Amino acid sequence: MESDFSKKTHIKLFVKTNSPKTEIIGYNEAKKGYKINVKAQPIEGKANIEIIKHFRKKYKLSVEIISGSTSKEKLLKILS
Question: What are the chain's domains?
Answer without folding.
Answer: 2-78 (3.30.1200.10)
